[in-house]
Amino acid sequence: MQTPESPLKIPRLVLASASPRRSALLSQIGLTFEVRPSDIVEPPHHTYSNDPASEVTQKLALLKAAAVSQHFDDALIIGADTLVSLDGELLGKPTDDADAFKMLTHLSGTCHEVVTGVALVDARTEREIVWSETTQVYFRELHSTEIDTYIASGEASDKAGAYGIQGQGAAFVRRIEGCYFNVVGLPLASLVEHFLIFPCGETTCV
User: In DSSP terms, which residues pair with 82 in a beta bridge?
Assistant: First the structure.
């Protein structure tokens, strides 16, 4: 089935992320874009242990978008960063299987926050806008054997908090409060809202 064309008219859109999930979300709403992952080295998340997840994700999203914007003369760059926050502890992607097991054990039976920071940077004018969105995610109690099985599937390795709600990790989630797509990696509704007000060159992105 062909994806319908988006009513948004953005001359050149670039996603500063290698995440296949973010690419799929942009394609889902009919956007045409290029993928150009940033080459920044992200600091370990414990570096920001005293900062709220909303600030950390916005800072990293802007770093990614700004780095990629240097390679373009006329494009709108999207940067994004997603973290899981549990009682103020920030969880990024697990470093190995043991780290993934530790994360999922901590998340078992809890309500935690998934926070995505998003940055838009106009490469021509250097205008930028940054925001974050938070979704509450409620996990059921997890058994150690199912955590082991999930990690063995490989799905946990490249996701903040060591799970993906759009995959097998959906079985862990009792309910959410907020944007589902935010948990996947990109809050689509607020992204489009910011497109509509963000000045691209001399006009807004419509």
Answer: 116
Give the H or E element holding residue 68: helix 53-69
Tokens of 138: 């409620």
| pTM for this predicted structure | 0.88
Can you read off the two tokens belonging to residue 130?
Answer: 């940054």
For 106, list phi and psi in degrees, rounded to 5: -65, -40
Q: Whole-angstrom Cα distance, residue 61 to residue 42? A: 10
First to last CA, the chain: 25
Helix (H, G, I), strand (E, B) or coil at 117: strand
Distance from C-alpha of 25 to C-alpha of 98, rounded to nearest angstrom? 30
In whole angstroms, give the CA distance from residue 177 to residue 180: 8
Phi, psi (degrees; rounded to nearest 5) at 29:
-95, 15
CA distance 124 to 75: 7
pLDDT digits (tens, 9 = 90+) for 27-85: 999 999 999 999 887 766 666 667 899 999 999 999 999 999 999 999 999 999 999 99
Alpha-carbon Rg for the chain in angstroms:
17
- Residues annotated catalytic, as ranges: 81
SS3 (DSSP) at 97: helix
CA distance 181 to 165: 9
Q: Which helix (H) or strand (E) holds 91?
A: strand 89-91
